[in-house]
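Write out this protein's structure.
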Amino acid sequence: MKVFRLYIISILMITASVYAQVEDATEQNSFGKGVKFYQNLLDFSSGKKNTTRLDAFVMIPYSSIQFVKSDTGFVGNFSVTISIFNDSKEKLITEKTWNETLEAKDFSQTTSKDHYSLNLKSFYLAPATYFIRTAVDDKESNSEFTKEVTVKVRDLSNPVAMSDIMLLAKRIEKEGINKIIPNISGNVALQKDGLPVFYEIYSNFPEKLNIEYVIKDKKKNEIFTSTQIKSVDSGRTQIFYTIKDSTFSLGLYYLDISIKDSANNILASGERPFFSRWVGVPSTITDLDKAVEQLIYIASSKEIDFIKDATTVEEKLKRYLAFWKKLDPTPETEDNEIFNEYYRRIEYANEHFSHYVEGWKTDRGMVFILLGSPDNVDRHPFDLDSKPYEVWEYYNLNQSFTFVDETGFGDYRLITPLTGDLYRFRR
C-alpha cells in the first residue's frame, strides 16, 4: 500500500480560555498573567523496540502574544519549553526549548484570534506514565503561561495497534503528499463537511480489518456510527477518514474508533474527546443545560425558565444566545465582554473553590462570580483559637465578606450577609 508523506501546515484557528488569581483586582490581572495556547500530545509508533514517539503540538494564537512596532510592521517573540518528568515529578527525563518570532504587517493581525503559530516537537520515550509541563514565555510582556498534564505513553508493539487520533481542520493531497492542518483546539463547530480524522494502524502482517467509528454525546450515548473495511500492509498504515452526515449541537462529544478482525474481535481501539462551540460563545461552555443553570447569578428565574422551556436543543440555544445578546455592551463586535467574563469567573470558581460541589455553587464561588476579584484576601487557615476562615475586601464597595470553614474540609460558608444591590453582577 502506498505510504503518504505527511506534512503539518498552519492556517487559521481560534483562541483559548483565560484564568485569574482571586487576589488580583485590576482588569488586566483578573484575566490572568500569561500566554494562552492549545496543546495536543499524541502517541505514534517510533519504529523502534520499547520506544513510542510522542508528538507534542503547541498552537499559540497571535492574540496571546504582545507585539512591538518594527520597521516592517509588528514583531512578537516568545519561547516554548516542554519538560518531561517521571510520574512522581522527581526526575527530569528530557526537555526541549525553542524560540519563535512572529511578524505581522498591520496591527489588526497582532490581536487576531485567527492567526497563530503551530509548532511540533517529537519525543522518543519508553512506554510509561509521565508528568509533562509546557511553558510559553512571552518575551515582550515578560509573562508566562503553563500547562501541566499527566500522560500515559502507550506501548504500540502489539500484533495490531493504533496511534492516538488526530482531529483535522483540513487536508490537502497533491502528488502523493498529504498536507494536514491539525485541529488542535478540538472545536468542530465550523467544520461543515464532516469530521476528518487521521491515525495510524500498525500490524505485523497484511490483513483486512473492519473499522468502526462511533460518536457519543457527553453522557456516552451513541449518536452516530459508521464502518469502514480497510486492507492494511504489514508495518505502518496511515488512515485518513471523514465521518460524514454528522452535525453537532453545542456540547462535548467523544469519538471512539475500534479496529476489528473478520470475526468482529476488537484488536485495538482509541477515544478522542472534542466539542462544538459557536463563535462568540466562551470556549469553556461545552454543556448547554449546565450553562443555563449557571445563569442563576445574572438572570431572573423567569428568564431561566423561558430558556429551559424550549422544546428543542436548537430553540434552547437560540433563546440562550438571545439573552446574552441583550447584555452585550458592544453588539457591533464578535466578542461579548460580559458573556466571556461571566463564564471566566465560573471557570475560576470551579478550579479553586470546588469541594463536595462544583465551585460555582459554593459561597465563595457566588461572591466571586457576582463581584469579581476582591481587592484583598486575608486568610487564616491555621489559627489556634478559631476555625479556618478568610476575609475578602472590596474597596470600591466598602464591603468585606467573611467565609468560615466549619467542617475543616474546605467548605467555606459566607457568614456576612450578601443582600440587595450586592446580588447584581458587576463586571
